[in-house]
Amino acid sequence: MLANELYGLKKDLRERGIVFAYSGYVTENVLSGVGDALKKKLAIEDADTKTIRSVFAVFVEQMQNIIRYSVEQLPSPDLPPSADHPAELRYGILTIGQEGADYVVHAGNLVMKSDVPRMRERLSAIQAMNREQLKFAYKEQLRSGPDEHSKGAGIGFIEIARRASSPIEFDFMDIDGKLAFFALKATI
Question: Where are the domains of the chain?
Protein backbone atom coordinates (compact mmCIF):
# COMPACT_ATOMS: atom_id res chain seq x y z
CA MET A 1 0.00 0.00 0.00
CA LEU A 2 1.36 3.41 -0.88
CA ALA A 3 1.74 6.05 1.82
CA ASN A 4 -1.29 8.06 0.69
CA GLU A 5 -3.54 4.96 0.71
CA LEU A 6 -2.40 3.87 4.15
CA TYR A 7 -2.64 7.41 5.48
CA GLY A 8 -6.17 7.62 4.04
CA LEU A 9 -7.12 4.47 5.96
CA LYS A 10 -5.59 5.87 9.17
CA LYS A 11 -7.41 9.18 8.69
CA ASP A 12 -10.74 7.41 8.04
CA LEU A 13 -10.37 5.30 11.19
CA ARG A 14 -9.52 8.35 13.28
CA GLU A 15 -12.49 10.31 11.86
CA ARG A 16 -14.74 7.41 12.89
CA GLY A 17 -13.34 7.55 16.44
CA ILE A 18 -11.49 4.23 16.13
CA VAL A 19 -8.57 3.99 18.57
CA PHE A 20 -7.72 0.33 17.85
CA ALA A 21 -8.26 -1.66 14.68
CA TYR A 22 -7.18 -5.21 13.98
CA SER A 23 -7.93 -7.22 10.88
CA GLY A 24 -6.19 -10.50 10.37
CA TYR A 25 -5.53 -13.89 11.80
CA VAL A 26 -6.09 -14.03 15.53
CA THR A 27 -4.17 -16.02 18.12
CA GLU A 28 -4.09 -15.99 21.90
CA ASN A 29 -0.78 -14.09 21.66
CA VAL A 30 -2.39 -11.40 19.49
CA LEU A 31 -5.26 -11.18 21.97
CA SER A 32 -2.82 -10.79 24.86
CA GLY A 33 -0.63 -8.20 23.14
CA VAL A 34 -3.47 -6.02 21.90
CA GLY A 35 -5.21 -6.42 25.27
CA ASP A 36 -2.17 -5.05 27.10
CA ALA A 37 -1.98 -2.06 24.77
CA LEU A 38 -5.73 -1.48 25.18
CA LYS A 39 -5.50 -1.44 28.98
CA LYS A 40 -2.62 1.08 28.81
CA LYS A 41 -4.51 3.29 26.35
CA LEU A 42 -7.61 3.35 28.56
CA ALA A 43 -5.52 4.08 31.67
CA ILE A 44 -3.78 6.98 29.89
CA GLU A 45 -7.22 8.36 28.98
CA ASP A 46 -8.13 8.21 32.68
CA ALA A 47 -11.09 5.90 32.08
CA ASP A 48 -12.63 4.72 35.33
CA THR A 49 -11.80 1.21 36.55
CA LYS A 50 -15.26 -0.19 35.78
CA THR A 51 -15.10 1.09 32.19
CA ILE A 52 -11.59 -0.32 31.70
CA ARG A 53 -12.72 -3.74 33.00
CA SER A 54 -15.85 -3.73 30.83
CA VAL A 55 -14.12 -2.64 27.62
CA PHE A 56 -11.37 -5.19 28.21
CA ALA A 57 -13.85 -8.01 28.99
CA VAL A 58 -15.88 -7.28 25.85
CA PHE A 59 -12.70 -7.10 23.77
CA VAL A 60 -11.57 -10.50 25.10
CA GLU A 61 -14.98 -12.12 24.46
CA GLN A 62 -15.11 -10.71 20.93
CA MET A 63 -11.59 -11.94 20.12
CA GLN A 64 -12.36 -15.35 21.65
CA ASN A 65 -15.42 -15.59 19.40
CA ILE A 66 -13.22 -15.00 16.36
CA ILE A 67 -10.62 -17.52 17.57
CA ARG A 68 -13.27 -20.19 18.17
CA TYR A 69 -15.90 -19.62 15.51
CA SER A 70 -14.60 -17.81 12.43
CA VAL A 71 -14.86 -20.14 9.45
CA GLU A 72 -12.17 -18.19 7.60
CA GLN A 73 -9.09 -20.07 8.65
CA LEU A 74 -5.67 -21.34 7.70
CA PRO A 75 -4.40 -24.71 8.81
CA SER A 76 -1.28 -24.57 10.95
CA PRO A 77 0.63 -27.75 9.96
CA ASP A 78 3.88 -26.78 11.72
CA LEU A 79 2.42 -26.99 15.20
CA PRO A 80 0.58 -29.93 16.72
CA PRO A 81 -2.83 -28.83 18.09
CA SER A 82 -2.87 -27.99 21.80
CA ALA A 83 -4.58 -25.56 24.14
CA ASP A 84 -1.86 -22.98 23.42
CA HIS A 85 -1.69 -23.66 19.68
CA PRO A 86 -4.99 -24.47 17.96
CA ALA A 87 -4.83 -26.45 14.73
CA GLU A 88 -5.73 -23.42 12.66
CA LEU A 89 -5.56 -19.65 12.55
CA ARG A 90 -8.90 -17.86 12.38
CA TYR A 91 -9.49 -14.55 10.62
CA GLY A 92 -11.60 -11.64 11.85
CA ILE A 93 -11.78 -7.93 12.35
CA LEU A 94 -12.15 -5.97 15.59
CA THR A 95 -12.25 -2.25 16.26
CA ILE A 96 -12.48 -0.25 19.45
CA GLY A 97 -13.55 3.34 19.25
CA GLN A 98 -15.40 6.13 20.92
CA GLU A 99 -18.83 7.53 20.17
CA GLY A 100 -19.20 10.57 22.40
CA ALA A 101 -18.41 9.46 25.95
CA ASP A 102 -19.00 5.78 25.15
CA TYR A 103 -16.53 3.14 24.04
CA VAL A 104 -17.67 0.88 21.23
CA VAL A 105 -16.31 -2.56 20.37
CA HIS A 106 -17.15 -3.91 16.90
CA ALA A 107 -16.12 -7.38 15.78
CA GLY A 108 -16.83 -9.42 12.69
CA ASN A 109 -15.99 -12.70 11.06
CA LEU A 110 -17.29 -15.18 8.53
CA VAL A 111 -19.77 -17.82 9.71
CA MET A 112 -21.61 -20.62 7.96
CA LYS A 113 -24.87 -19.35 6.51
CA SER A 114 -26.59 -22.39 8.01
CA ASP A 115 -25.65 -21.12 11.51
CA VAL A 116 -27.26 -17.69 11.02
CA PRO A 117 -30.85 -18.59 12.10
CA ARG A 118 -29.64 -20.15 15.37
CA MET A 119 -27.28 -17.24 16.06
CA ARG A 120 -29.94 -14.66 15.19
CA GLU A 121 -32.43 -16.32 17.55
CA ARG A 122 -29.94 -16.46 20.42
CA LEU A 123 -28.69 -12.90 19.92
CA SER A 124 -32.22 -11.50 19.55
CA ALA A 125 -33.21 -13.13 22.85
CA ILE A 126 -30.12 -11.69 24.58
CA GLN A 127 -30.69 -8.27 22.99
CA ALA A 128 -34.23 -8.15 24.43
CA MET A 129 -33.15 -8.95 28.01
CA ASN A 130 -32.93 -6.37 30.77
CA ARG A 131 -30.13 -6.34 33.40
CA GLU A 132 -31.89 -8.77 35.76
CA GLN A 133 -32.71 -11.19 32.95
CA LEU A 134 -29.11 -11.09 31.74
CA LYS A 135 -27.85 -11.82 35.25
CA PHE A 136 -30.25 -14.76 35.55
CA ALA A 137 -29.39 -16.08 32.06
CA TYR A 138 -25.68 -15.88 32.89
CA LYS A 139 -26.10 -17.92 36.08
CA GLU A 140 -28.38 -20.43 34.36
CA GLN A 141 -25.91 -20.91 31.50
CA LEU A 142 -23.07 -21.51 33.96
CA ARG A 143 -25.19 -24.13 35.77
CA SER A 144 -26.41 -25.90 32.67
CA GLY A 145 -23.11 -25.85 30.78
CA PRO A 146 -22.46 -25.10 27.12
CA ASP A 147 -24.87 -26.02 24.36
CA GLU A 148 -23.87 -28.42 21.61
CA HIS A 149 -22.61 -25.62 19.32
CA SER A 150 -20.39 -23.96 21.95
CA LYS A 151 -16.61 -24.32 22.09
CA GLY A 152 -16.44 -22.58 25.46
CA ALA A 153 -18.71 -22.03 28.44
CA GLY A 154 -21.53 -20.69 26.26
CA ILE A 155 -21.68 -17.36 28.10
CA GLY A 156 -19.77 -15.08 25.72
CA PHE A 157 -22.68 -13.20 24.17
CA ILE A 158 -24.40 -12.93 27.56
CA GLU A 159 -21.20 -11.55 29.12
CA ILE A 160 -20.88 -8.99 26.32
CA ALA A 161 -24.51 -7.90 26.83
CA ARG A 162 -24.03 -7.68 30.62
CA ARG A 163 -21.03 -5.39 30.19
CA ALA A 164 -22.68 -3.19 27.55
CA SER A 165 -24.43 0.02 28.57
CA SER A 166 -27.10 -0.42 25.89
CA PRO A 167 -28.47 -3.47 24.04
CA ILE A 168 -25.96 -5.22 21.80
CA GLU A 169 -26.37 -4.75 18.06
CA PHE A 170 -25.69 -7.41 15.46
CA ASP A 171 -26.09 -8.03 11.77
CA PHE A 172 -25.43 -10.65 9.12
CA MET A 173 -24.54 -10.11 5.47
CA ASP A 174 -24.79 -12.88 2.90
CA ILE A 175 -21.49 -13.49 1.16
CA ASP A 176 -22.36 -16.47 -1.03
CA GLY A 177 -24.45 -19.65 -0.86
CA LYS A 178 -22.47 -20.99 2.11
CA LEU A 179 -21.06 -18.03 4.02
CA ALA A 180 -22.29 -14.94 5.84
CA PHE A 181 -20.40 -12.14 7.54
CA PHE A 182 -21.39 -11.68 11.20
CA ALA A 183 -20.92 -8.34 12.96
CA LEU A 184 -21.50 -7.53 16.63
CA LYS A 185 -21.40 -4.13 18.33
CA ALA A 186 -21.24 -3.48 22.06
CA THR A 187 -21.40 0.01 23.53
CA ILE A 188 -19.84 0.57 26.94
Answer: 3-187
d(CA 73, CA 69): 10
What 8-state DSSP symbol labels residue 74? E
- 58 contact partners, CB below 8 Å, separation of at least 6: 105, 159, 160, 163, 164, 186, 188
Instruction: Round to whole Å and give the CA distance between 137 and 163.
Output: 14
pLDDT at residue 79 greater than cutoff 70: no
Beta strands in the chain, from DSSP E residues, in sequence order: 18-26, 73-75, 88-99, 102-112, 169-174, 179-187
- pTM above threshold 0.90: no
pLDDT tens for each residue of 3-42: 999 999 999 999 999 989 999 999 888 888 888 888 888 8
For the chain, the first-to-last Cα distance in angstroms comes to: 33
Please name the amino acid found at residue 41: K
Report the amino acid identity of residue 45. E
* Other CB atoms within 10 Å distance of the CB of residue 51: 18
User: 3-state DSSP call for residue 120?
Assistant: helix
Topology (CATH level 3) of domain 3-187 = Heat Shock Protein 90 (3.30.565)
Residue 72 is classified by DSSP as: -
Segment 125-140 mean pLDDT: 95
